[in-house]
Write a structure and sequence with these properties.
Layout (H helix, E strand, L loop, with lengths): L20 E6 L14 H15 L4 E6 L7 H6 L4 H24 L5 E5 L8 E2 L2 H9 L3 E5 L9 H11 L4 E6 L4 E2 L11 E2 L1 E3 H6 L7 H9 L4 E5 L5 H6 L6 E4 L1
Parallel strand pairs: 1-2, 1-6, 2-5, 3-4, 3-5, 6-10, 9-11
Antiparallel strand pairs: 7-8, 10-11
Helix pairs in contact: 1-3, 5-7
């Protein structure tokens, strides 16, 4: 029997979340094992447990996962492949990742639905905005796959679009660094971490928060972005509680 929020007895206690609904953007590489390729069930389980931590706080969770662990369109186009074909292959890769994440979440009793912008009715629901919102309201995690359903757009753009369509309070971008820096922290030990930024400041300083299309969509629609180190223990929970973690990019 699936867990519901009414019968979760070990839900985290403490400061309540400040966000009712979030859109979590995760790279496909987060599911990969050594070498950064493929789907590692252990990594999927780790991601599922991190999502469960905020799910049990009462947060409604939508997820967008990239497909870079299985296919990168840029690899195909660099070898002469038609970009539309390469991009559709990338969209299909995100569906595979979404199915793996759904399995990992449901194995720890988190009811989950996969919706895809490319119709694959045997394996996932078609993306329907109002149905997605209904799932979220009923306490189900919703994984959005297939990007926007169109070539020439990244999963960053897909995340921005879905975040706005479901009226998420914030788009949380999961990374392997603590937030947005003024330079590459792996190359510059003195790189400065920004705790807060406005969209205009990020543009003026040429800081890469999301790809340009996604960033512009969030700026024009006043959608807050939070960049965090998803792999730091407790960071995601702290983020949804409004604690100073990562970099908050606001209008």
């Amino acid at each position: 029997m699936m867990t519901t929020r009414d019968n979760v007895s070990d839900a985290p206690r403490g400061k309540p979340p400040i966000y009712r609904r979030i859109l979590l953007k995760i790279s496909g590489e987060a599911l990969s094992g050594p070498g950064g390729f493929g789907i590692d069930p252990d990594e999927a389980a780790t991601l599922a447990h991190r999502i469960r931590a905020i799910y049990e706080m009462g947060v409604q969770v939508g997820v967008v996962i990239g497909g870079g662990n299985l296919w990168r369109g840029s690899v195909g186009t660099s070898h002469g492949m038609d970009q539309t074909t390469a991009d559709y292959m990338g969209m299909i890769a995100t569906v595979m990742n979404g199915m793996a994440m759904r399995d990992a979440l449901e194995r720890i009793n988190i009811p989950t639905r996969v919706q895809t912008a490319i119709e694959m009715n045997r394996v996932a629901e078609p993306y329907i905005r109002l149905r997605a919102i209904r799932h979220l309201d009923k306490g189900r995690v919703v994984i959005f796959c297939g990007g926007t359903g169109n070539p020439y757009f990244t999963t960053d753009t897909g995340a921005a679009l879905r975040g706005m369509e479901i009226d998420a309070d914030v788009i949380i971008k999961a990374t392997k660094v603590d937030g947005v820096y003024d330079s590459d922290p792996k190359k510059n030990p003195n790189a400065k971490l920004y705790q807060t930024l406005t969209f205009d400041e990020a543009l003026a300083n040429r800081l890469e928060v999301m790809d340009s299309t996604a960033f512009t969509m969030c700026r024009d629609n006043k959608k807050t972005i939070l960049v965090i180190n998803f792999w730091k223990e407790g960071a995601l929970e702290a983020a949804v509680r409004g604690e100073p973690v990562g970099t908050l990019v606001t209008p």
